[in-house]
Design brief:
Elements lengths: L3 H24 L4 H13 L3 H8 L4 H16 L8 H45 L1
């Protein structure tokens, strides 16, 4: 078994690409068209299975589970225990940390957008004065 400090470092580091990929696919402009297609099918799908399948690509929390599974397969990372229990603990831990990162990123972006709007408002006021 790997030292606990190394396992925790891996946990926080693996959560970074998971958060990055999940956020990019579910929020950024580069994936807008596929996301709009998935949103449409998640609302208008004929079956429950179809609606839920397409919803997975529109929700950063849901999608982060699948990205995490990919990274667990890629790295073989396990947390606290060996075997399937270590993978299970690692998977949910990475998802939790990744979603914390995405929440913080969302708050930071919100602040930046608000500040840009305030700057534009002040610039307009300065031009009219």
């Amino acid at each position: 078994m790997i030292a606990l400090t190394t396992q925790v470092a891996w946990l926080f580091l693996l959560a970074v690409p998971v958060a990055c990929i999940a956020w990019t696919v579910t929020h950024e402009e580069v994936f807008r068209e596929p996301r709009e297609y998935c949103v449409k099918h998640s609302w208008q799908g004929k079956t429950l299975l179809e609606r839920k399948f397409f919803y997975l690509f529109t929700c950063e929390y849901c999608f982060s589970h699948y990205v995490t599974i990919f990274f667990l397969c890629l790295t073989g990372y396990q947390l606290l225990m060996e075997g399937w229990r270590g993978y299970l603990i690692a998977g949910f831990s990475i998802v939790w940390i990744a979603n914390t990162y995405m929440s913080l990123f969302g708050l930071i972006r919100q602040d930046i957008v608000r500040e840009k709007a305030e700057i534009k408002t002040m610039e307009k006021q300065n031009k009219t004065d």
